Amino acid sequence: MMNERRAKFDLSIVTTIYRTGCYLEEFAQRALAAAAQSGFAPEDVEIVFINDGSPDNALNDAVAVRERHPQARVLDMSRNVGHHKAMMTGLRESTGKYVFLLDSDLEESPEWLIAFKADMDANGYDAVYGVQERRKGKWFERFSGELFYTVFNLLAAYKVTPNSVTARLMTRDFVNALIAHEESEPFLFGLAALTGFTQHPCPVRKKHESPTSYTFIRKFRLACNSILSFSSRPLIYISLLGFLMTCGAFSYIMWIFLRFILFGSPPAGWASLIVSIWFVGGITILCLGIVSLYLAKVFEEVKRRPYAIIKKRYE
To answer: Across 23-105, where does the E strand assignment appear?
Structure first.
């Protein structure tokens, strides 16, 4: 059943906190100023901070910001659950007619709200999201990002705009539809594409100042989870690979048999036999591994465990 949440504010500004406590005061000031320029009265705006188990003093920094800005709410998670789960939790907790989601490290400018709101009002979009004109980072980060989006869009039925950023402005109806998805490992960009409605990309330029908390391992796990969650095509390709290998093996057997009948030439080549066994064995293990990942995904989903628990609320 869709999680229908009625709007209490005109705008909810939702952001996650992980080692970003030093940016929160500036973030709040700039976000509230952008909201005012977009036509939102201060009393009709809320800021929802989601502390994603930050190991530093970020929670205290957020509580201090809340004391200076009564529009702010701070939700302290029981542990670190990951960026996408924290974002989905923030969307579930938001109560605005419009919801502006972005990161709190100021690499995504709070002033983007002004352009997003103008674009939404002019064209009646349900969601406006940022897309980088040029992906930030060094060559490996840019290459791996392009590779992920290419592979994902080749395999998934729902396409994701390459180089999308977290920042997006959404209507209440869109957010209600988005949070109706109850996956244990949510991938926000894929879920947004799956949700539908009228969405529009807006070109942005993301800064590259603060150190990223996304390690290579985290990015790899997110990429694997995203593909497993939104595509069953790897299983189809496994079946096709097995069929082609079976046909190839059968053809080779027939060739050996005919050569022996016609020319009396017995099959030879111990090395080629061993290589064939190792090759087929490797392909078999790889295919079993992919199938096992899907089984593990099903195992996680059917338990229906909550992926995020709010330990304490400051509001």
So the answer is: 45-51, 72-77, 96-101
